[in-house]
Write a structure and sequence with these properties.
Largest sheet: none
Structural class: mainly alpha
Number of helices: 3
Distance between the termini: 71 Å
Shape: flat
Oligomer: single chain
Order of helices and strands: HHH
Length: about 100
């Protein structure tokens, strides 16, 4: 009887080389940033120099969420729940958008 291969750590196989996984991670992080900021014109095109900073903010979150879902083996519902939790933590707590009173 053949023992099952270890589930941890996952090594890139021949169908998915290491540089392909790195390229996929960068693509995911970049698309997340572009979709979040430029589609709703939250960042004006004239200040696109902020995109590297936003890439760190959005990219780190999306990669951590994706990695957690893949490692646990959860599906789309878990991805959505973690995404909503990240959004509440980032905008609500980090940017204090959930604060009831606005002080000027």
């Amino acid at each position: 009887m053949n023992p099952s291969p270890p589930a941890w750590p996952v090594q890139p196989g021949p169908s998915q080389p290491k540089n392909g996984r790195l390229r996929a991670a960068w693509t995911l992080a970049l698309l997340t940033t572009l979709c979040a900021e430029l589609t709703y014109t939250a960042v004006a095109v004239t200040i696109t120099w902020l995109l590297p900073l936003l890439l760190v903010m959005y990219g780190a979150g999306v990669l951590v969420i994706r990695e957690a879902v893949v490692r646990v083996g959860a599906g789309w519902p878990s991805l959505v729940v973690l995404g909503v939790a990240y959004q509440v933590a980032e905008d609500g707590l980090g940017l204090q958008a959930l604060r009831g009173r606005y002080e000027t």
